[in-house]
Amino acid sequence: MELDHFKNIITRDLLAVRKEVSSFKEVSNLWKALPGTINSAGHLSLHLVGNLNHFVGTGLGNTGYVRERDLEFTGNPVSQDELIHSIDQCVIMIENTLDSLDSDDIDKDFPLPWREGKYYNTHFMLLQLSVHLNYHLGQINYHRRYFEK
Q1: CATH of 2-147, one of 1.10.287.1490, 3.40.50.2300, 3.40.50.300, 1.20.120.450
Q2: What local confidence, expressed as pLDDT, does residue 149 receive?
Q3: What is the per-residue DSSP string for 75-119?
Q4: Ranges in the chain, pLDDT < 70
Q5: pTM for the model
Q6: Spatial separation of the C-alpha atoms in residues 14 and 16, rounded to whole Å
């Protein structure tokens, strides 16, 4: 049951990121940082996809995804369609991975460390990943509203 809640929340917020990204009429605005900041909506979107593919995909789904975290923030811009496709693929991965788990997996140790090499249980990690996703979704929304007046 809890796994379904996490799947629904993460999927909902990824689809909201998708909507934000697709709402940029001027694609170059996806890759502009707000004054006083360093990350663009495009890079934040890449970061979210990389983060979820790493922790959920590799950690829980054994997808073999290899994360290049620095490139999530510094890599060359990709097309809007490519970014949307990567979000769509991430949604599919989330659904497939969380559907493959048993209800008792939520209390097991998460297979990958989080900050400072510390390990937590899967419930904590899914909660952390959900909050992190929502935090950056708000930033992406603000970027879009700022640049796409």
Answers
A1: 1.20.120.450
A2: 82
A3: SPP--HHHHHHHHHHHHHHHHHHHHTS-GGGGGSBPSS--GGG--
A4: none
A5: 0.97
A6: 5
